[in-house]
Automatic annotation (TrEMBL):
It is found in: Nucleus. Residues 120-165 are annotated as: Disordered. Pfam families: Fungal_trans. This is Xylanolytic transcriptional activator regulatory domain-containing protein. Residues 353-440 form the Xylanolytic transcriptional activator regulatory domain. The keyword Transcription applies. One of its GO terms (molecular function) is DNA binding.
Length: 732
């Protein structure tokens, strides 16, 4: 019989390892080879091997072969039986490199890893001290608890996603020394083959597993590839703008390339995604407590814990500068800065937000992301407006455009809460609006002849259905913020220069400020006011409800909020709530209550409001400020019914900010800012119990409130009150 090859089973230690088809002689402890002739039920009669020399099975097989041999076949006279013979060329303990044995070794190491994790969990349980062999960074970055949701769940249905427990040890960058084979016995070489290291250091961290499989040239300080993939999945699943900043299919596919592949994402992008995604999963370790952030308008931040997200944001800032200095992957550098602005915005860190937001737009200018052909400079020495090659595909073209618009949106949104100038003037932008999500995902090219240009003012009010979705309206709403911001910041300069659009008709009684011009009668103000009214009524029929089909459209919800916030930002400086006929006071109260209605609507769903756009807490905070102003006026007028209504409305705004603050520290900061502002304006805030649905009942209309608070007001407005309101706003 032909001799079958053997293989080694899994096992450790010094015990004798038996080869396949080999049995142990329990009397002499001598291994005996069990050849095919010894296998049970091998003959036609079902007889087993009788261990004779030659055995009966071999005799029958030999006889059958001779009886049915072809003419001229050379067969031996006697059967060749190999029972009880051990080949001298084989070593029973010699390991085999077959795939099955490699899998067995990996399974063994996985079991060892699980045992180590169990020891670690017991050691780090409450009341127990961590073992001294654990590195501090590994203990700090290990997730304490993980919540899981079904894989097919949609954003907002749960707060976190499940994460493999065997990757907890990969959170610490100290365990990711991919250049040292001694730390990681298994790694990927350039040919994508698993290689086993010959030596393993004795001082390997306890949570470092020999089953870590990573590229040998994996970028320094990046988490393990499996953790990267998990955080990327969380990023695309939960962040409202992820699928616009990157083309999801292309980005996910690029992660499968080697790190040195030209299409593999650069390290700053992955670092920044890790920082942004840390609030969506427990895999990134403990998050920074929102209470660690100051709210008194101070720019200096306290010494925050060195969390996983903070480490990744720091690495992103450091590495992106290297790519900028070399002029490499510049579009991805802009995307990195956009990601960093989201991270710093979510943390309420105004200075870093302002600098990163400005940097993203400044870098976008030489790349030509703010303009589109045929618009270019007349300067003859600049034949091209972009220093990078033209996009190769429609997807790449739209990705660049989306990147610019997202950088633009952040600059306009966070700039609405400050008195600082914007980073890029609207007059320097000549770009078309984004395409729909379906067109972007499928890479459908859209001709420029049918697209809308942002520098055409009428485009804000006209929405072609074939190229308009909620994200298009979202970008248009940020342009309205820019218009209001520029008007408020530049009014005095323009009027001083004699610009007739900013010269109001003098009206000494309209606002009651004495010999002061009524800015609301200037042509520029009237044009903006009408533009805001027209924008709210111009939405297409399919984009009039952000809660359509039981789902929350984050872009459309933020657009609705922005439409009301722009009205408040335009009229709030001119609102005199001591006068019942003040149209600006009526409009800001109406807008504040419209924002409150949107809070009620999203609160009534099961959507996790921590997944909303970061501009939402500012909108809620602004509405709460308006309620605080009217509450102060109602207290001065001793209007008991109005006081109760306004307090209930204000409390609900505070409740929404507090709920969102469970995930987003920015919301906590706005909550504290509102708490600091309201007591000085209207006295201590009393928390009212809400009805079963969480929605207080309003018993006072806007007209009744304005009429009540104006009954006891004097002819002279309280200028100190308006100054106090502005000073109490701890804007960054």
């Amino acid at each position: 019989m032909p001799k079958a090859p053997g293989s080694v089973g899994s096992g450790t230690g010094g015990a004798t390892v038996l080869k396949r088809n080999q049995v142990q002689d329990f009397f002499s402890f001598t291994p005996k080879t069990l050849k095919p002739c010894f296998r049970p039920a091998i003959s036609a009669e079902g007889a087993n091997c009788d261990a004779r020399r030659p055995c009966s099975t071999c005799v029958r097989s030999h006889k059958h072969a001779r009886d049915h041999a072809q003419p001229g076949a050379n067969l031996p006279e006697r059967p060749e039986c190999t029972f009880d013979e051990v080949a001298t060329t084989e070593t029973p303990s010699a390991p085999s490199d077959s795939p099955k044995n490699r899998f067995e070794r990996l399974e063994t190491r996985i079991k060892e890893l699980e045992a180590l994790l169990n020891q670690k969990e017991q050691a780090t349980s409450p009341g127990a001290n961590p073992p001294s062999s654990l590195p501090p960074s590994s203990i700090q970055n290990s997730p304490a608890s993980i919540q899981s949701v079904p894989p097919n769940s949609r954003p907002g249905s749960a707060s976190t996603m499940s994460f493999p427990s065997d990757l907890e040890s990969l959170l610490s960058p100290s365990n990711l020394d991919v250049n040292a084979q001694a730390v990681h016995p298994y790694f990927w070489n350039d040919n994508s083959h698993v290689i086993e290291s010959e030596s393993i250091r004795n001082d390997t961290p306890l949570l470092s597993s020999s089953t870590d499989v990573i590229w040998s040239h994996w970028p320094a300080n990046l988490p393990h590839p499996e953790l990267i993939r998990h955080l990327v999945d969380m990023f695309f699943l939960f962040h409202p703008h992820a699928s616009r900043l990157f083309h999801r299919g292309t980005f996910i596919a690029s992660l499968s390339y080697p790190p040195d592949h030209p299409d593999f994402p650069i390290a700053p992008v992955l670092h920044a995604i890790c920082a942004v995604s840390a609030i969506y999963t427990a895999a990134g370790g403990p998050r920074t407590n929102a209470a660690d952030f100051l709210y008194e308008g101070q720019f200096a931040q306290p010494d925050l814990p060195d969390t996983f997200a903070e480490q990744q944001a720091t690495h992103a800032k450091e590495t992106v500068e290297k790519y900028l200095n070399k002029g490499q992957h510049l579009v991805q550098c802009v995307q990195t800065y956009v990601l960093l602005t989201w991270y710093y915005w979510s943390c309420g860190r105004w200075v870093e937000l302002f600098t990163c937001s400005g940097q993203s737009l400044r870098v976008a200018i030489p790349l030509g992301l703010n303009i589109c052909p045929p618009f270019r400079s007349l300067h003859g020495s600049s034949p091209t407006m972009s220093i990078i090659p033209s996009p190769r595909t429609p997807i790449e073209d739209e990705t660049r455009r989306n990147t610019f618009w997202l950088a633009y949106a952040v600059d306009r949104q966070h700039g609405s809460g400050t008195g600082w100038a914007l980073s890029l003037d609207d007059d320097d932008i000549a770009q078309v609006f984004p395409v729909t999500m379906e067109q972007f995902e499928l890479g459908i090219p859209v001709n420029y002849n049918v697209r809308q240009w942002c520098h055409v003012r009428e485009a804000v009010l006209y929405h072609p259905p074939d190229i308009t979705d909620s994200f298009t309206l979202y970008i248009k709403s940020t342009m309205l913020l820019s218009f209001i911001k520029n008007f408020n910041n530049r009014y005095k300069i323009k009027s001083n220069l004699g610009d007739t659009r900013f010269l109001p008709v003098r009206n000494f009684t309209a606002q009651g400020y004495g010999d002061q011009p009524d800015i609301r009668l200037s042509p520029a103000f009237l044009e903006l006011d009408q533009l805001l009214v027209s924008f709210r009524s111009s939405f297409p029929s399919n984009l009039k409800d952000p809660f359509r089909n039981g789902l929350v459209d984050t872009h459309l919800y933020t657009t609705f909020l922005t439409a009301h916030v722009t009205r408040i930002l335009l009229h709030e400086p001119h609102a005199n709530i001591d006068r019942a006929n003040c149209t600006s006071a009526a409009k800001i109260l109406e807008s504040a209550r419209a924002i409150l209605e949107l809070i009620y609507a999203v609160w009534s769903t099961n959507y996790d409001i921590g997944l909303l756009d970061y501009f939402c807490p500012f909108c809620w905070y602004l509405a709460g400020q308006c309620f605080g102003r009217f509450l102060r006026a109602a207290q001065d007028a001793a209007c008991i019914q109005q006081i109760d209504t306004l307090r209930a409305e204000l409390d609900f705004v505070r409740m929404a900010l507090s709920k969102m603050a469970e995930r987003v520290p920015l919301s906590y900061r706005y909550h504290r800012m509102l708490d600091a502002c309201i007591p000085e304006v209207c006295g201590p805030v009393v928390v009212h119990s809400s009805p079963a649905d969480g929605r207080p009942v309003s018993t006072v209309t806007n007209q009744q409130l304005l009429a009540s608070v104006s009954q006891t007001s004097t002819n002279q407005p309280d200028m100190a009150y308006f100054l106090k309101i502005n000073n109490l706003d701890p804007q960054p």
